[in-house]
């Protein structure tokens, strides 16, 4: 079976799942980049442009916001911000001016990155190919480098929140005494290490796994040629729920982690 550009089915799938990678000549094997210092340029560019676009738009709407009857865009943004703010109030029991902006940033940014999955799988690669770019992954959240970067950032903010609220001494006391008391300090420490390491790993892999699987389904549907439309439309409609849910879950887990960091045993 052949696909776009005379590629075999396997070649077509591999082509759509390959990032636009940038690296030194020494890191290239068979013309492809390998190694730790490989930069996925498409992930950085697309996620950065989406962030600038959506948050620039939100800032512009906020600057022109009025207390009168809001316009459609202002009303939509206020609804999203209000929804996230309510989730923070219901879940986060500490006091911090950081958590609500962090939650809004995560929800909106992850959602728009996920939403790139709704663009036909061949459209952006064809446009990129017309200007000489051979590989392009249009959905940043299908790149584990991005999802891990976000989850590790959340992890470090969680550590900072622990230190800010409890102080170094209080944080160390919690690590070595909860939940079994000071007599089992080594056990408490091991449990805490496992728990803390699991948080960024599960946060990153959950988002990556769901979005990667969804993108794979779109690619497989695209291979069906004339038969793809009856399948692509229902899957796209269902995928709207997935991309929204994944953004919401990432946001909610972040709020929960911040709340845990701001509370003492």
UniProtKB/TrEMBL annotation:
Keywords, alphabetical: ATP synthesis, Cell membrane, CF(0), Hydrogen ion transport, Ion transport, Membrane, Transmembrane, Transmembrane helix, Transport
Keyword Protein transport: no
Pfam families xref list: ATP-synt_A
Entry-linked CDD domains: ATP-synt_Fo_a_6 (cd00310)
Single biological process term from Gene Ontology: proton motive force-driven plasma membrane ATP synthesis
Subcellular location, record wording: Cell membrane; Membrane
Name used for this protein in its record: ATP synthase subunit a
Protein family: Belongs to the ATPase A chain family.
PANTHER family, per database record: ATP SYNTHASE SUBUNIT A, CHLOROPLASTIC
UniProt superkingdom: Bacteria
Transmembrane segments: 44-63, 97-116, 146-163, 207-229, 235-258
Function in brief: Key component of the proton channel; it plays a direct role in the translocation of protons across the membrane.
UniProt topology in membrane: Multi-pass membrane protein
GO cellular component term of the entry, any: proton-transporting ATP synthase complex
PROSITE patterns from the UniProt entry: ATPASE_A
MF term (GO), any: proton-transporting ATP synthase activity, rotational mechanism
Keyword Glycoprotein attributed: no
